[in-house]
Amino acid sequence: MPDPQWQEPAALATIDEVPAASTGAAWERGGIAYASSKLALVTVAHEWAERYAESGHRLNVYDPGLTVGTGLVRDMSALKYWVWKNVMPVMAIHPKATTVRVTGRHAVELALGDAHPRLHDGYVEIGKVTAAEPITVDRERRRMLADWLDTAVATAPRA
């Protein structure tokens, strides 16, 4: 997965309609968008956790790591998809990887408070409390994202 690239909130919400020069370029751009959206989520979660602290609600972020057995690569070439389905399951033994079943259990335990019941504004990776990337706690970015989202939600058309 490519590294995330910080973007202004409106840029994160803009659909990229420019055709990619190749399948590899499309995969790269899609990967950057995916990673950047995850960076934005972790960043804004710190701001929301601060806002919710007064109400007694907990807010944490869960990172499942590399989760084998998902449909993440369903649009890849047949060879890459075969490798993902038949070789990648062995990667579940790697410390930064897990399975759908294990990550689901960790996420539910965190949400219900069965795991880390006193944790608030935490970052949990594959069931273990760790630190998010330092850039995610930048107060200006946190507020920029939260303010943009507040405005976007407030002005969104109602169904």
The strands making up the biggest β-sheet line up spatially as: 1-4-5
Largest sheet: 3 strands, mixed
Q: Helix content range of the residues, please?
A: 40-55%
Topology pattern, helix = H, strand = E? HHEEHEHEEH
- How far the N terminus sits from the C terminus, by CA atoms, comes to 36 Å
Q: What share of the residues does DSSP label as strand, in percent?
A: 5-15%
Overall number of domains: 1
Continuous helix count: 5
The number of distinct β-strands equals 5
Ranges with pLDDT <50 over ≥5 residues?
none
Whole-angstrom Rg: 18 Å
Rough shape? Answer: globular
Summed over residues and divided by their number, the pLDDT gives a mean of 85
SSE-based structural type: mainly alpha
Keywords:
single chain; two-stranded parallel ribbon; globular; 5 strands; 159 residues; 45% helix; mainly alpha; three-stranded mixed sheet
Can you characterise this structure?
- The model has no long low-confidence stretch (mean pLDDT 85).
- The chain is globular.
- The longest helix has 30 residues, at 23-52.
- The chain has 159 residues and is mostly helical.
- The protein is built from five helices and five strands, in the order H-H-E-E-H-E-H-E-E-H.
- Strands 1-4-5 form a three-stranded mixed sheet, with helices on one face.
- Helix content is 45%, strand content 9%.
- Helix 2 (23-52) packs across helix 5 (139-154).
- It has one domain (9-154).
- The protein starts with 8 loop residues before the first helix and ends in a 5-residue tail after the last helix.
